[in-house]
């Protein structure tokens, strides 16, 4: 019988090492996929809260300056005060806002070092808060804006 001098191919050890490297690569990809799914869930929750905050902001900007929903004496306000229903999507638990009217005699409202300027009258500072759940963790999205009296 003749002996083969040189054989081409893989040894069992080489095949096992190649399978190990492939397995590690696949496990890494699966963990990246899990992280991406979790990130998408968080982004979805924040998008829902942002959408509701935008809707509420637009409603507040469209009401009259002296509307009941913009009174600073009945803080905090709730989304149930709107004349038309604002339906909360899944995950959003509540919406509230507080109003502070800038009046003469309450100091430097706009932070420019000048007290009671004409541009500081007829302005309401509004803090809008949307409470929502992200993976069973309660979170709050806060939007601050100003509403001016139109003369």
Structure description:
This is Type IV pilus modification protein PilV. InterPro entries: N_methyl_site, Pilus_4_PilV. Keywords: Membrane, Transmembrane, Transmembrane helix. By secondary structure, the protein is α+β, with helices and mostly antiparallel strands. It has one helix at 12-62, and strands at residues 77-78, 92-102, 123-134, 137-148. Strands 1-2-3-4 form a 4-stranded antiparallel beta sheet, with helices on one face.
Give a topology summary.
Layout: H1 12-62, E1 77-78, E2 92-102, E3 123-134, E4 137-148
Antiparallel strand pairs: 1-2, 2-3, 3-4
State the gist of this model.
The protein is an alpha+beta fold and 151 residues long. 34% of the residues lie in helices and 25% in strands.
Distance between the termini: 109 Å
Low-confidence stretches: none
User: Which structural class fits the helix and strand makeup?
Assistant: alpha+beta
Q: Numbering strands along the chain, what is their spatial order in the largest sheet?
A: 1-2-3-4
Rg for CA atoms: 30 Å
Q: In what range is the share of β-strand residues?
A: 15-25%
Percent helix among the residues? Answer: 25-40%
Features:
151 residues, alpha+beta, four-stranded antiparallel β-sheet, 1 helix
């Amino acid at each position: 019988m003749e002996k083969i001098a040189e054989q081409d191919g893989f040894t069992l050890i080489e095949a096992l090492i190649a399978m190990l490297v492939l397995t590690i690569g696949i496990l890494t990809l699966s963990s990246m996929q899990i992280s991406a799914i979790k990130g998408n869930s968080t982004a979805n929750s924040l998008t829902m809260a942002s959408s509701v905050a935008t809707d509420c902001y637009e409603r507040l900007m469209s009401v009259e300056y002296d509307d009941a929903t913009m009174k600073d004496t009945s803080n905090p306000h709730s989304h149930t005060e709107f004349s038309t229903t604002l339906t909360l999507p899944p995950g959003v638990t509540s919406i509230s806002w507080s109003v502070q009217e800038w009046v003469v005699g309450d100091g430097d409202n706009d932070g420019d070092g000048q007290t009671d300027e004409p541009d500081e009258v007829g302005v309401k500072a509004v803090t809008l808060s949307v409470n929502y759940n992200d993976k069973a963790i309660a979170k709050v999205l806060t939007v601050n804006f100003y509403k001016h009296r139109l003369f």
